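HUMAN: Would you supply a protein with fold tokens?

ASSISTANT:
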Amino acid sequence: MEIEVAVTQATLPYEPNSFVGRESEVGELRELVHGTRVLTLCGAGGIGKTRLALRILATVAGEFPDGVWFVELADLWQPDLIVSRIAAAVGIAEEPGRPLLETLTAALRERRLLLVLDNCEHLIDMCARVCQHLLAHTPELHMLVTSREPLHVAAETVWQVQPLSVAPEAIRLFADRAAASFPGFAVGPGNASSVAALCRALDGMPLAIELAAARVRALSVDQIRSRLADRFGLLTNGDRTAPARQRTLRAAIEWSHELLTIPEQVLLRRLSVFASWSLEMAEQVCSDEVVEAIDILDLTTALVDKSLVVREPEVLGQARYRMLDTIREYAAARLAEADETVMFRHRLRDYTVRVAEQNAALGMAQVPGPWSARVDVFRRYDVDESNITQVLNQCLADGDAAAGLALCTAIRPCWLVRGTFTEGGHWLDAFLALDSPEVPPQVRGAALVGRAQLTLSSDPVAAEPIAARGLKLCRAAGDEFWTAAALNLLSEIALHTGHIDEAASRADAALSLARTAGDGWNEGYALGTAAAVAALDGRLRDAQQLANTALAVMTGIDQQWGVARTLLGLGDLARLRGDPDEASRHYLRALPVLRDIDSRPEIARCLAGLGRVAMDLSMLELAREHLSESIRISQQTGARIGVARGLVAFAALAMAEQHPELAVRLTAAATALRQAAGLPGPAGSHTERYLAAARHLGEPAVAQLWTLGLAMSSDAAVALALDAVAPSAEEVVSGPVAPACAPPGALTSREREIVALVASGLSNRAIAAELYISPATAARHVANIFAKLGFKSRSQIAAWAAGQHAQYPRR
């Protein structure tokens, strides 16, 4: 006997308000409904699965000749009644003496319809069995399922419903629901950023956004945001006609939580200590006799299936996981209720410090390893930065200076490579300021050296006493690695501040200690600094030999960051020797390595070198391209040394482009920045070169250009360099500016006369006779010229004067 079934479409549940967003998803899902036998919409509670299903049904309702049938299961708790609920929805009556499932199957066998099962998660096993049976015996049946976990049946396509994108979907939803709750409300310039921040804090979760929007009747958007620390108390009072699980945010999540097994509940709450994690991290931190490490894989899989944990893309060959903030907050509350918060935060702290120290040893070649493994150290920091920040915050709140300083020291190479000097300095200052006498001297000493390293690029003068204190503690503790690191740092500080002899002695001490200890990193570092000292002293052959030895050492320990840093020095040496081709080869070899680890300060330096090489070869457009990227990176990282050098490079470019007035301003700005950082000013010969080229504008105009440059902020000077706009001489003279001052390092008119006389080969006594001054006065003028131009011999003055084509008057 054939069972009759209605062929008209069933009445679908009423959509209570407008459907907002997800337009592209609706289009894709409409195609999938026809292309797969069972389509399951999965996602966390409140993510909008049911609402999305209803919208899909509305778009395909006319495409199934035997109807679209909606079966609500949320209020059904008896698995045996699932078949009855489906049969009642599609109008099938039970036959005496025959199982209802057989009757239902027979009735649907020849029908082409879409059957929707809404909210299956609490009846998942029975739903899966019923669906599997129906699909096997009704070839034209299609099913759409909403559930917090998949059915895991054959022919199932699982669609993970994602949170709404903040812009524009989540904002549109908030605006729509808020206007319905409080007529006249609108999102505009005055509150758009606050609404976006609120939607972002709510994970783009539609239920949470709708509950928050209902609060605009009594609170401003900013007030709602400020109360999200208690989001479960705030986000209540939903639609009274909605199912109970959808009236409050807590109820939506508790519905899912209560469906978990006890081990799943335990792991969920423990995972709340992470911002994100890998399986290995969960096994290390969350396991004990209650949840064994061997079980965490299956439990994690179950939590992902149940939409309480989100699987992220792979990083370094490992899957990553996270929770939506709302679910994480709920899980954290459960952790507190179980009195496990302190225990598992400490376990995360200990794990994070231990792994960071292992990574630091690998990254800095204190233990053997290939370069690829060292690169992974820096990439792993990027992935785990949120966990690290969270641990540092907790250590600070607990007053745990020892763990905080140990962690800061371990991740210091990552701060240096990324150029996050300010952030790293903030953390180290906070922990060093704690009154913690129990901190071991070697921990505090290493932290002080790390703090000085982070200070070097912006204020080497301030870095010196910090490094000296760190050196003293490291020496006393017998820590050879950090003692050598401190000596290397003090050598570099001396180099930057113009104390060449001290730089040489510190580098020699670091080199001796590192070689004795078999410390390749600090040995290579010391050799590189010694090479820079030799180059500044004019011993280019010695500098080349020392740099080549440093390169061999860094290559031998497979520390390509150190190799790249050494190549930068070799590139600089090649430029000094007038070999731009070799310089370019060194820079281009270093750049991919630096980009591989995103070493921003060194990338900036490398690009600056390439920019100068391009200028040497008269490739001015390429020079501008390299120098622009370089100075932007230095500006972003707060490296004042890099910015000052970049401004001088742009001054040289301005000269090459026939803009001497711009060159004067940029040189003055660089001089002011170097003075602020406690650095020696640019070589007098460089300064005089730019000033001399602009003197056709007249001395008052040059002085005023210099004054304008001195008054510029670092950001304004960078913007001027990048925009390549400088006022004309007329604008400078006529414009309202501060009183002009003579440029420091500029030669006086008498000194320019003496330069011409020196260039013609006259001695001090002959100059004195020529100018009717005493020999002592002439000698003093010549000494001043040496100091201002940075020269050591009269032949250098003569060569410079000839290169400038100086036309100084003779008396």
Q: What stands out?
A: The beta strands are 38-42, 68-72, 114-118, 142-147, 156-160, 277-278, 310-315, 318-322. The two ends are 129 Å apart (CA to CA).
